[in-house]
Structure formats: structure tokens, C-alpha cells
Design a protein that fits this description.
four-stranded antiparallel β-sheet; Alpha-Beta Plaits; about 15% strand; alpha+beta; about 45% helix
Length: about 200
Amino acid sequence: MTRKLRERIIAPEKIYHIVCRGINQKRIFRGARDYKKLLAIIKKAKKLYNFYLYSYNFLSNHVHLFIETKDVPISKIMHYVNGCYAGYFNYRHKRTGHLFQDRFYASLIDTESYFWTVSAYIDLNAVRAGLAKNPENYRWSSYQFYFKGNFKDSLIDGEQFLSLGGDGSVEKLRQEYLEFVKEESKKEERPKFIKNEKYI
């Protein structure tokens, strides 16, 4: 890994793997409109709280996010995201009560070797859940942007993420990341950074 990544890992800014689960494993999305709404809320949160989003994957009853904070704590960011989405979801679907199980789960990524591994795990989540044959075919995952190499209008900070993963041009690093995800997809064992069932 690069010195840029090493400096981020030891700096006050932190990198997190976030998981938000529906209460009692219930669905938190009931249609495309719901997925789009959460994307819109995260987009607004990025403008308000100025953080990097490297990967995301939305499944029917849980969400994975890979976030690097700057000067705003992750708790404040996620309080906004989950609060806005829960309010929207309850109003739209005429329900009351909690939507998410607990607030959220946050795993601090403080080891350089886990950086791409975490993102690849998130990008492959829908494939391992049987929702897509290939990660680039799953609509509600950030991997499609890495696969296409088009980050201009995407929610993720793809070039930033790739530049922290090694040396060379963004395109060279993108191709290396695609190959890395392909190799990770062949592995059956749980990644070492997963130390709790909550993060699966």
C-alpha cells in the first residue's frame, strides 16, 4: 500500500466499514424508489458532512458502506443518513417504529492490507447472496462504476479510493482492482477483517 493510505490510517480521520440492518432482519427496501431515496440521502449527507464514500451495496434487508471521515464523526453522519431514510420509509410505507436494528455497526479499518479487501467484500455481497451472477450486474452496488471506469456522475470517490491503493495511473489501478475483486470472488473463507457476524 502507499504512504498516502498509511498516513490516513494513523491520522485523526478514520476509515470505516458500516453495516445497517433492518430490525428483525426485515426488508428496508421495497422497490427501486426506496433504493434511489437512500442514494439521494447519502449524496446530500456528503455535501453536508464532507466525507469520502468508497463503496456501497444495498441488499433487501441491510446496507454496506465504506466511508472515510474527515472532520465530522461517523456517528453524526450515520445518524443523519439513517434518520432521514427511516423517516422517509415509515411515511411512504405507512409504518411506525424502528426501521434499523440498533443504530449501525462500524468496523474501524486500521490495517493497510484490508483496504481493498473490505471494498471487494462489499462489492461481492450481492453475488454471494445470490442476487447477481457478476458484481457489475447488480444495480444497487458501487462496483458498476469501477467496472465501467466512469466516476464523474457517481456517488463514490472512485479515483480517490484507487489512488490510495497503489502507484500508477487511475486506469492502471482500476484494472488491478477489478482483477483483485475477481480473485477475491474465488475465495470461500470469511475475510480476516470480519470479526463479528454483524458485519456479514
